[in-house]
Amino acid sequence: MAEAFTRPFHALIGVAAACLSTACAVQPPTAPGPAAAMAKIQHLVVIYAENHSFDNLYGLFPGADGIANATDEQKTQLDHDGKPLKELVIFDHHGHPDARFPRMPNGPFRIDAPPVSRRHDEIVPSGIHAFWHHREQINGGKNNLFAAMSNVGGWTMGYYDSSGLELWQWARNYTLADRFFQGAFGGSYLNHQYLICACIPRFENAPDAMKVRLDADGRLSKRPGSPSAMDGAVQVFSRSGGQVSPDGWSLNTTQPPYQPSGVPPAAGGSPDWADPAGDPRAGRPLPPQAMPTIADRLDAKGVSWAWYAGGWDAAVADGRQPPAAARQVIYSFDIPGSPMFQPHHQPLNYFARFAPGTSDRARHLLDGERFMADIQAGRLPAVSFYKPVGRINQHPHYTDIKSGDAHLASVLRALQASPQWKDMLVVLTYDENGGYWDHVPPPTGAGWGDRWGPGSRVPALLIGPQVKRGFVDHTSYDTGSILKFITERWNLEPLPGVRERIGNLTNALQ
Q1: Which candidate in 60, 184, 330, 476 could, as Cys together with 453 as Cys, close a disulfide (CB 3.0–4.6 Å)?
Q2: Is residue 415 scored above 80 in pLDDT?
Q3: Is residue 29 part of a domain?
């Protein structure tokens, strides 16, 4: 696949003046280079939504590389034996054909049109989005094993006409990036880590039960009798798709060592810590991490920043309850009114530097209500990360698209009305594809990809007064591009995991 290379960071701009008589003609102003455009940004706001591929939400966007450009090879899904599926079968949460959905022709289909007819305000199935599954789904860039390697089968091929959503209109008014890839294969846990450090967590001496079981080709070992994708969901040996690699890298959802965590405190232990022995559902929590993050780089230069999380204060209080107490926030999909806080969406809560009781935690890990107050007061730091709580983050299975769309649009309007808007860049993107198919192969090769990713395309909107209007940006980015922008804008020490050839977002700036 041909890839768009970023322009040199320091571009030489020349202006030719033509003298028509005794005076030189006035020339139109030359567009500023990347460094000049970047220097105008004094406030960066990163909004991290959940679990949709680019094609799933923006595959019909005018001017973008959408579903119409997919090849027959990319659209036609294969069974485990390498032969095309006769049709797409959607599976229920038990991995059996789901009678609520019709069988579909093999290829992409509209979720919000007959015969499926599910609206943006309805909760829909969530396909598995795990590291090893995702690598196999991409299948070397062919993208034709998404249905076979999913717990929901053919549902992975569904997409929406999202032109009625508010965020679609923001994308039309500003810049939509159609070559923005999730930084790592797999799910939310790993891609949140990638967002703050472009690094992979380590879990030395993880229990064998948490380690992946792979075959001789490095693929997930399938259980004997694992069915055809016409009959049922793939069956593998590894719990959660294998949380830890054979060589000790933590790749699939593992809980934080500190509260709030999906692992409660130990009986008689500190209420601020997850039980280091773990629990049957989540396994052991990840040991505290110490790799360098963008937080360290910002602090080293005295650049202000904050991580704002919806529901954070309530989740901290709830997580500190004894194991026997009713935990109303953590993993509470079925409790009416719960904000559905997700601990594995809080990457800095895995790092020793931000342990409970530290001044860094109190200063930088803040509640979502504080985010809205800081917007209105014009006191956002130079770099802000905002993580919406589960109820409004657009994650399939436990929330819908429409409610998240309304919330995110309201945040954008608040930012637009902020005193800091004049020098602000907002990057609204998604952590990962949520198991949904996308037709564009992730970039590979030296400087583009590595063992960890990038994975599938995700939507990315770039918004602000310095952003090109009505523009579709075809530059190749991944989640690390956000870190590259921060690093170059504030002259920080680079993080070693950021890929060399990805863009730094400046192509979207005027």
Answers
A1: 184
A2: yes
A3: no
